[in-house]
Structure formats: structure tokens, C-alpha cells
Design a protein that fits this description.
The complex is a heterodimer of chains A (432) and B (586). Chain A has 3 domains: 3-73, Thrombin, subunit H, CATH 2.40.10; 76-332, Rossmann fold; 343-427, no CATH class. Chain A is built from 13 helices and 23 strands. Chain A has helices at 129-132, 153-163, 178-190, 213-227, 239-252, 266-274, 302-310, 332-335, 343-365, 372-389, 397-411, 414-417, 421-427; strands at 3-5, 8-12, 15-19, 28-33, 36-46, 49-54, 66-69, 75-77, 86-88, 104-106, 123-124, 137-138, 142-147, 168-176, 197-203, 231-237, 257-259, 262-263, 278-279, 285-293, 313-318, 321-322, 328-329. Chain A is elongated. Chain A starts with a strand and ends in a 5-residue tail after the last helix. In chain B, helix 10 crosses helix 11 and helix 13 runs antiparallel to helix 14 (558-585). The longest helix of chain B is centred in the C-terminal third of the chain and has 28 residues, at 558-585. Chain B is globular, with a radius of gyration of 28 Å. Classes of the chains: A alpha/beta (432), B alpha+beta (586). Chains A and B meet through strand 5, strand 17, helix 6 and helix 7 of A and strand 1, helix 1, helix 4 and helix 6 of B. Strand 5 (36-46) of chain A pairs antiparallel with strand 1 (5-13) of chain B, so a sheet runs across the interface.
């Protein structure tokens, strides 16, 4: 049964209040105004006063406009037909394809029972040595890419999307620049990955509030596919826009802000999304990679700070490469012991030497004398940055490990590296 | 009791529901919201006029104005009895594996299962005789729960002296079966079963007196036991920014701590970490008993995506279960990870109630809530004379890693030990990343006080020298200071740090700590005369290598003593050489 009301008694920010009866909490409504139709969702009820968050914004809404309640909460169609399609934040087609209305599923469903999760154990290969070798991405992991505007984070996401060995890719764009949206579409199309992808795109020019729906829709669809045994990779960009939309709504609703204007439940809101990452016992998995731009490159800002407490590590993208320090995959231990036997050694030793290189660099800038060892480190550091860290490097894990030994052998004597003799004998490149 | 009381929903805001009632309501009583055939649990948290504000322990999606609310007259309670050990509960004490069997992958709202199944039968052995007088919490008999002698006690809520009118014979009974009839001072008869129901927010006080915590709780983490120990019945907190290893540290302690029972409250944290605990603990062996670790563990798990209000109740559920086992004269450790998420849950609710906010929008009662939670720790002498304890360790996740924030500050005021994690140490891969200079403890250690102080002095001085060295460089540092710096680094790298992946190094027994620490103390106190900095550095690096090897050798073995002799020989040779050099020079 659908009910229509036309008594809007308050409009404040993007929230309108209407007097209505027998409405379910979080139900959807459709508001028809002269600027068009928009979906809205119940966010608070006080007797007959129902507060609705209008996804397209309240601009142009008149107090006499019609509000039609749909009698259900947010839903999205789920079927194989979603593959290769592009939708907006409200789940409507953005390409010229048909509307999908079959098999509607609930968005923002209940959390997974921890007893039905398993310890993740599969590596997701990306072809990026800084990830594969040093901080392996693991199936069902949730990892943010902390970055600042101007860094090629979307390029990194697109590359991972093309190369990751998963069944399905879901891209959720929030406040995406139109160019970036086209970039994603064209890149994936060129590499033939579009047919295994689904896009939910909210661009910067779309109404702000609509971006709140993107993670939920993307993850609801991902969850259904995962339950059917698919391994799904969800890419979200940029979660900072999602948080800012949350802030906007909570301020409009006169909620008391906790930290820099963000609502007190920012942690729970983010966790509800990120925790959808899962490896199901006897079904598929969801892996989440999410770009979070850090306002002012400040990791203690509430957005990256709350994110870091939820996610299983983080990648820092700085100066066009993945920064080795600070970047961390908390789950890498689950997988890097069973790739190749030199994996952990190469990872540890190269990282340690790179740390030494950084402190040598500091010494150099302070004008201290460079010893023979320092000079070796400087050579090593330069090679490492050039051959490993550069984002254009695109090689398999095994090739990257070989490359690691090559770099080491170019700069050091075997005993200086601190690896086990047995590994040195097997992997140290032989002089011709 | 009166007939059931009902109300109607009058407003909804997130997980807060306003109910209009006509009769009366009880503050903090449990109410069920009836939505179709679902019943959603909630708690009355404020009453204004004829409107009761309820915090709902479930998602409120789809609820409607006018729907029925049923008040129960009962405070939020847990079931206590044999069968709790080895279980995994959510914040409301729903057993998660059983829920999974019933509902599949997801946590369906409004499904509540019994924490302890009624039909399970336990072999009861009476120990008290008819006509004997007992007080609340005293033992009526016992059942075998794994390796423990699980006491069946006089219900905690009964007052005064109670006389046993009748007691069941040895035999198998279910948990609700009356196993004793007790007559109080007024002649009223009370039935006692093997199961008790207790409201989570009220401490169990059925004991004779609370004692001062004095015996150390051995965590087998050297930096903690030696420098900033925790006492049985004491409290400690572990604040640290993300990535500093809070959870790993808490997990290690839950594995190795020398206590009888560990209650883990995973409160608002990652589900993955809980999964690791609940999938690995059944396979790990408790070194004290040789039994699977799971048999001494209870997990209360309300991860970050589970309903927020239940997160608030989860720490109370956990501490109540801890207190229950304490009543049997056992030492219980409660690990809460993380108390910040619990505080945030309070903040969310306070915001919905539109209370006037305190600092960072936390409610004004934050401090008293935190204090009264930690106050539930303690060593008690029970009415039977036995001693039991609850130790509480809480992880804190300060926003931005800044310890000045309200939750950390409120916690520091009430705990007995502070293990502050530092990002610098974590980034340098120095684990556990507890800052040895900033952290403190008010409890005593089993390590000699004089030796501890000497170590702390060297750490402090070493850090000062290190700071200075950053300015004047190694060249500008006097050799004597440089040696102190090397000693501090040495102590840190081979004693304070522990390799969690090395089977032997991961946990160090009390005896071994005392033994090894004494060896180190002697090295720290030895005056070496090095010719130059390089030879000093070489010496300590060499020593470090041997200690690292020593740390991975099983204690009480021949290899262990051999390594010790080797180390002592190197040191004494160096001392001899120093003397010779000195003699040569003059």
C-alpha cells in the first residue's frame, strides 16, 4: 500500500518534515517537486512528524509537494544482469541500459555472525610489488588507501581492479570527478574487465546526500554475490566524501558533534560498512579497498583516524608511490608464509635496509660524512625507489622477489644482507 | 506480580525509541518492542512524564509509531551457571555458534537464545548438609566443569543467614531444578537452582571483604612483569593509537597469563580479530593445565558492526561472568578491548537523549561510569574464607593517538597500572610497543626492587643520551654516555622486547624472568672500559646476538645453561681486558 501526503511542515537543510501516519522507520519516500522526483528516507519519527532525508537535496521542494511513501526501506535489484552496468548513487541506471526491478534485496542488512567467519588465507595478487611483496592484500581484508588530493589513487584502484584475481569488481564512487568516472569506465573497458564489474557512481555534481547510499548499495550487492560463492572486490572512492555527507546530515538534525563537527557515531557508521568485508564459511568473500583522502594530510583527522581503528591496516600513497613506512597489511602473515620460501626474508631484509637508507639520507642532509656502508645504502635506496616503489612497475610476485635479490646483489655482499645462508645460496644471483 | 504492562511507540531516532505508557515503568528495566512476530530487546534509560526512552539493542529499521512495547519488570541480566566456559556470547549473552546454527550467516534481529540450555544435565555433588547455616555466595555443592570444580552457591541476592531446609542428593539435574531449599531469618523459604540470574550492572557483593591487591599476576610479558606489573585483582589499561599492537598484546596476555579463567570482551572492535581468537583458542594448549585454552576462556563478542547499545552492555556482561567465577575462589582476568568503543556507545546514546555534552561530546557521567566499571575488579575474601580475584585490563583507543582525550584520562585516574603504547616503538617494530619511560604501575613486582630501579635509571639516562646524540651526533657524545646509551638499547632489545612468533620467547615464566634479569642487571652495573665507541658497539651487538639466541632456548635445559656460561664468559673476559688495558695505559 502506498500513501501520499502533501503536508510538508518543515524544510531545513536537506531534511524535510511531513505529517504522516503508519510509516516504518528508515522507509523510503518519493518527493515530487518542480525540480523533479527524488528519493528520501525516514531518519527520525516523533509522533506524526516524520523527518525525511532528501537524497537529491531540498532545493526547490515546496511545502505543498507530494510525498509518496513506498512502504519499504532502501532496496536494490540483484541478478547477473547487474554485470557490466553503471548506476548512480540511488541505484538508477547511469548508462543507457534498462531499469532493473527484479529480485529486490534489502540494503544495509544485518551484520555477519562472527561464528560464520573464517580466518582468511588467500592472497589477492595485484602486480604491484609494494603490495604483493611488502604488504600483501588478503582476500576478505578491508584496507584504506590514505592519500591526499593530487595523488594517483584512482589510477591505483583501476590497476588493482584490472589485475586482481577475483570474480567480480564493484566500484562505488562518492563525489567522484566526472573525468575520474570516465577514466574508470574507459580503463576497465579497454582491458575487458567491464563485463565483470558493476559501477555505482555518485559524481561531484550529484546531490551530496545521494553519496551516503553508495557504500551500502555496493556492499549489499557484493554480499549477495559472495553468498553465491563469488570472490568480490569492492573499491570505494572517496570515503572522505561519505563522511562529510554524514556530517552534513547530523548537523542539520541538530546532533551534537563530537570532533571537528563529525557525529559521535562516525566510528560505528564506518564500521558498519567496512565490516561487511568477510570470508564466509562455505561461501565467497568480500574484499574492500577504499580511498580516504586525508584533509590536510593529517592522519589524526577524525576520518582517517576512525578508519584506521576499523580497517586491517592501511596503505599510504605519497609522492606517487606506496610509502613503505606506515603502510601495513595486518593480514599479510596469513599468506606470505606460503607463497615462496624467500618471501618473508626478502620483505624483512629489504625493508630494514630501506629504513637504514632513510636514516643515511637524513645524515647526508645534515652534512655528516658518508662511510662506505652509507654509500652502498644510498645506491640501494635509489634502486629500490626506481625499480620497486615506482607505481608503473607491474610484475608478478615471483618476478618481484627475483628483482629484490637482484637489487640486493647489485649493492651488497651476500653477508651484509642478513639473510639465512641457505636462502642466499639458492636465490643470490650468480655472477656470470 | 502485577499484570504485564504495555506501552506504545511514540517516537524513533536511530536506536532510541520513545514509548508512551499509562501504568508505571522501572528505570533500566528491560522492555520488548513487538514488531510483527519479532520482539526487540530494549532497556529503559530515561523517563519523562508518561514517556519512557528506550535504548534498543537491535536495528530499529521498519518500526512504526503506535507499535506495542512490553515492559518486563526485570533489569538486564545474565544467566550464571555451569556451561559458560568455552562459550562465545554476544553482548546480550546470546550464544553465537547456536545462533549461527539457527539463523545462518547473519545475526537476525530479535532472535534470543538461552545462554545456558535448560535441558543440559549436570552431575551435582552436595557439600553442605541439611540444617547448616550459610550466607549468600557460600557453597552448596559442586559440578565438574572441564577442569574446574564449579561451585553451586547460595543465590547472591539473598540476605543474612540461611538455613538449609533440604538439599538434593548427588545426581544429574538440569539447571533449573531446585537443588536446595533455604530458610532465611524471617522464616521465608527460598529455592536455589544450579543456575542464577544476575543483573549485569550491579556488582556481585556476596563476599566477606575486599582486600588490597598484592600478589603479582604473571602475564609472561617481560616488560610488564618486570617494569610495570599487574596485581591479581588489580586494574590496568593499554592505550595506544591504531597499529600500535593493542589487540595483539591483549591476545598474548589472554593466552599466557597465569590465571584460572580469562573472560575476553571484544567490544566494538574488528570481527576478524575475534575470529582469530575463536578459531585458534580451541587448538592452543594452556601450559598450566595441558588442556585447550578455550576451556578456561569465555568470549563476549560485540564487534563494531553489531548493534551499538549491546556494545555498551557487553562489558557489563563480561564483568558479571568474571565476578561469578571469582565467587568460586578462582583468579579471573577480564580483558576488555576496547573500552573506548564502549564509551563511544555511551556518547551515541547521550547524543540521542540530547543531554548536555561534556568534553568531545562524551556525557558528563563518563568518568563515574568508567570508575565504577574498574572498581568491580578486586581481590576478595569469600564468606567461606577462600580468596578469589577479578583483574581488569582495558584497551583504550584514543582519537588521533592523543592520550589527553577524555576516555584515556578518565581511565588513568582509576587504574593501577598504565601500559602506554607508542607509535614510535611500533614503527620501529619494537614489540610489545609499551613505552618503558611513560608507563607506570602502582603494584609490586616479583623482581628485586633494587634491580628494577637500576634498569629504569639506565633506560631514562639512555634515552636522554639518545636525544642529545640527535643534536650533537655520535662524535660529540662522551664515551661514558655512549656506553649508557648502548646499555639501555641492549636492555630494551633483548629483554623488554619479545618475539611473539618465537615459541619460547613469546612467554617467559616468572622464574626465568628473575633469573635472566639478574644476569642483565649485573651486566648493566658492570663498568666496562672501552677504548672507543666502535669496540663498545661491537661488544654490545655481540652480546645482543647471544641473548637473542638465549631467549629462544627452552629453560631448564643443558643448552640454556651453556648459553648462559658463554655469555658470562664474554662479559668477564671483556672486564678482564678492560682492566689490562687500563693497567697498560698507566
Amino acid at each position: 500500500m502506498q500513501k501520499i501526503y502533501n503536508r510538508i511542515i518543515q524544510i531545513a537543510g536537506n531534511v524535510v518534515t511531513v505529517e504522516a501516519k503508519d510509516i516504518g522507520y528508515r522507509d523510503l519516500a518519493e518527493i515530487t517537486s518542480k525540480t523533479g522526483k527524488s528519493l528520501a528516507q525516514v531518519i527520525r519519527m516523533d509522533g506524526e512528524r516524520v523527518h525525511l532525508q532528501v537524497f537529491a537535496g531540498s532545493r526547490g521542494v515546496s511545502t505543498g509537494d507530494k510525498v509518496r511513501f513506498l512502504g519499504h526501506a532502501m532496496r536494490v535489484s540483484f541478478s547477473e544482469n547487474l554485470l557490466g552496468r553503471i548506476f548512480n548513487g540511488a541505484g538508477l541506471p547511469r548508462d543507457n541500459g534498462p531499469m532493473l526491478e527484479e529480485n529486490m534485496i534489502e540494503v544495509g542488512g544485518p551484520p555477519v555472525n562472527p561464528a560464520k567467519r573464517i580466518i582468511p588465507s588467500n592472497m589477492v595478487r595485484t602486480g604491484i610489488p609494494m603490495i604483493d611483496v611488502f604488504n600483501s592484500l588478503v582476500e576478505s581484508q578491508k584496507l584504506p588507501i590514505f592519500s591526499v588530493p593530487g595523488e594517483p589513487y584512482n589510477e591505483v584502484l583501476a590497476r588493482i581492479a584490472m589485475q586482481a584475481e577475483v570474480d567480480l569488481i564493484i566500484l562505488g564512487g562518492m563525489g567522484l570527478k566526472y573525468d575520474d568516472y570516465l577514466f574508470f569506465r574507459d580503463t576497465l573497458e579497454k582491458h575487458g574487465s567491464l563485463s565483470r564489474s558493476i559501477f555505482f557512481i555518485h559524481t561531484a555534481s550529484d546531490p551530496t546526500v545521494e553519496c551516503l547510499l553508495v557504500p551500502d548499495i555496493s556492499l549489499a550487492v557484493a554480499e549477495e554475490f559472495a553468498l553465491k560463492g563469488k570472490r568480490v572486490l569492492v573499491l570505494l572512492t572517496d570515503m572522505a566524501n561519505f563522511c562529510d555527507a554524514l556530517k552534513e546530515i547530523s548537523i542539520t538534525m541538530e546532533q551534537i558533534p563530537s570532533n571537528r563537527g563529525y557525529p559521535g557515531d562516525l566510528y560505528s557508521q564506518l564500521a558498519a560498512r567496512y565490516e561487511k568485508a568477510v570470508d564466509f564459511d562455505t561461501a565467497g568473500s568480500i574484499t574492500i579497498l577504499a580511498v580516504t583522502t586525508m584533509p590536510g594530510d593529517d592522519v589524526t583527522h577524525p576520518i582517517p583516524d576512525n578508519t584506521g581503528y576499523i580497517t586491517e591496516g592501511q596503505f599510504y600513497l605519497r609522492n606517487k608511490s606506496i610509502e613503505p613506512f606506515g603502510s601495513l597489511s595486518r593480514l599479510k602473515q596469513q599468506v606470505n608464509g606460503k607463497t615462496r620460501k624467500d618471501h618473508r626474508t626478502v620483505m624483512d631484509r629489504m625493508m630494514q635496509l630501506f629504513a637504514d637508507y632513510r636514516s643515511t639520507l637524513e645524515k647526508q642532509t645534515m652534512g655528516f660524512r658518508m662511510s662506505e656502508w652509507d654509500k652502498k645504502l644510498l645506491k640501494y635506496g635509489r634502486l629500490f625507489e626506481e625499480k620497486m616503489m615506482d607505481l608503473s612497475v607491474n610484475i608478478s610476485l615471483e618476478k618481484a622477489l627475483d628483482l629484490g635479490w637482484e637489487i640486493l646483489s647489485e649493492c651488497f655482499e651476500p653477508f651484509e644482507v642478513g639473510a639465512k645462508t641457505e636462502l642466499i645460496e639458492e636465490f643470490w644471483p650468480k655472477q656470470l | 506480580m502485577a499484570d504485564k504492562r504495555y506501552g506504545k511507540i511514540a517516537g524513533i531516532n536511530g536506536n532510541m525509541v520513545i514509548a508512551e505508557f499509562s501504568d508505571y515503568v522501572v528505570q533500566n528495566e528491560v522492555a520488548y518492542i513487538v514488531h510483527g512476530n519479532e520482539q526487540l530487546k530494549s532497556e529503559v534509560i530515561r523517563v519523562r512524564g508518561n514517556r519512557a526512552e528506550l535504548q534498543v539493542y537491535e536495528d530499529t529499521k521498519g518500526l512504526r509509531i503506535g507499535e506495542k512495547v512490553e515492559f518486563t519488570d526485570e533489569l538486564l541480566s545474565v544467566e550464571l551457571g555451569p556451561g559458560l566456559l568455552g562459550q562465545i556470547f554476544d553482548g546480550l549473552q546470546n550464544p553465537l555458534p547456536q545462533l549461527a546454527k539457527k539463523c545462518g550467516f547473519f545475526l537476525k534481529r530479535g532472535v534470543y537464545l538461552e545462554a545456558l540450555p535448560d535441558e543440559a544435565k549436570w552431575e551435582f555433588t552436595p557439600s553442605a548438609k541439611k540444617d547448616k547455616t550459610l550466607r549468600a555466595g557460600q557453597k552448596l555443592g559442586s559440578v565438574k566443569e572441564g577442569i574446574f570444580d564449579h561451585w553451586i552457591m547460595v543465590p547472591f541476592g539473598l540476605n543474612g543467614e540461611l538455613q538449609i531446609e533440604a538439599i538434593a542428593n548427588k545426581g544429574k539435574y538440569d539447571l533449573r531444578h531446585t537443588i536446595a531449599k533455604l530458610k532465611d531469618e524471617h522464616g521465608n523459604i527460598h529455592n536455589a537452582a544450579m543456575q542464577q540470574i544476575w543483573p549485569v550492572k550491579i556488582p556481585i557483593t556476596a563476599y566477606a571483604e575486599k582486600l588490597k591487591p598484592s600478589a603479582p599476576l604473571v602475564t609472561k610479558m617481560r616488560i610488564i612483569d618486570t617494569l610495570m606489573p599487574v596485581a591479581l585483582g588489580g586494574t590496568y589499561c593499554v592505550p595506544g593509537p591504531f597499529g600500535s599492537g593493542k589487540t595483539v598484546l591483549q591476545q598474548l596476555i589472554s593466552k599466557h597469563a597465569e590465571v584460572d579463567i580469562v573472560v575476553v570482551a571484544a567490544c566494538g572492535e574488528r570481527a576478524g580479530e575475534v575470529v582469530e581468537t575463536l578459531r585458534t583458542f580451541p587448538e592452543l594448549t594452556d601450559s598450566r593445565t595441558g588442556r585447550p585454552l578455550m576451556e578456561r576462556t569465555v568470549i563476549i563478542c560485540n564487534t563494531s558492526s553489531m548493534p551499538v547499545a549491546a556494545r555498551e552492555s557487553s562489558v557489563y556482561t563480561a564483568v558479571t561472568i568474571a565476578e561469578y567465577y571469582r565467587q568460586m575462589g578462582l583468579n579471573v582476568l577480564l580483558i576488555a578491548d576496547s573500552t573506548s568503543r564502549w564509551a563511544q556507545a555511551m556518547r551515541e546514546m547521550s547524543g540521542r537523549l540530547e543531554e548536555i555534552p561534556g568534553e568531545e561530546a562524551f556525557p558528563a557521567y563518563l568518568e563515574t561510569r568508567i570508575a565504577s566499571f574498574y572498581e568491580r575488579a578486586g581481590v576478595v575474601r569469600l564468606n567461606s574464607g577462600a580468596i578469589g580475584s577479578v583483574t581488569i585490563g582495558g584497551a583504550v583507543s584514543p582519537a588521533g593517538g592523543n592520550f589527553e582525550e577524555p576516555v584515556t584520562q578518565a581511565t588513568l585516574k582509576v587504574v593501577g597500572a598504565f601500559h602506554g603504547l607508542s607509535n614510535n616503538r611500533a614503527n620501529a617494530r619494537k614489540y610489545p610497543a609499551i613505552d618503558p619511560l611513560e608507563s607506570w604501575s602502582k603494584y609490586g613486582s616479583f623482581i628485586d626492587q633494587k634491580e628494577r630501579q637500576a634498569a629504569q635509571r639506565i633506560l631514562r639516562k639512555g634515552s636522554e643520551v639518545n636525544q642529545m646524540m640527535k643534536v650533537v651526533g655520535e662524535e660529540g657524545t662522551p664515551l661514558q654516555d655512549f656506553v649508557i646509551y648502548l646499555k639501555a638499547e641492549f636492555l630494551d632489545s633483548i629483554y623488554l622486547q619479545q618475539n611473539a612468533f618465537d615459541e619460547v620467547d613469546a612467554a617467559t615464566t616468572k622464574e626465568r624472568q628473575a633469573h635472566v634479569f639478574h644476569v642483565i642487571y649485573e651486566i648493566l652495573e658492570t663498568g666496562f672500559d672501552f677504548g672507543d665507541k666502535d669496540s663498545a658497539r661491537r661488544f654490545f651487538h655481540g652480546l645482543r646476538q647471544r641473548f637473542i639466541e638465549w631467549n629462544s632456548i627452552e629453560g631448564n635445559t643443558e643448552d640454556f645453561s651453556k648459553k648462559e656460561q658463554e655469555i658470562k664468559k664474554i662479559v668477564s673476559e671483556r672486564v678482564k681486558k678492560s682492566k689490562e688495558d687500563a693497567a697498560y695505559g698507566t
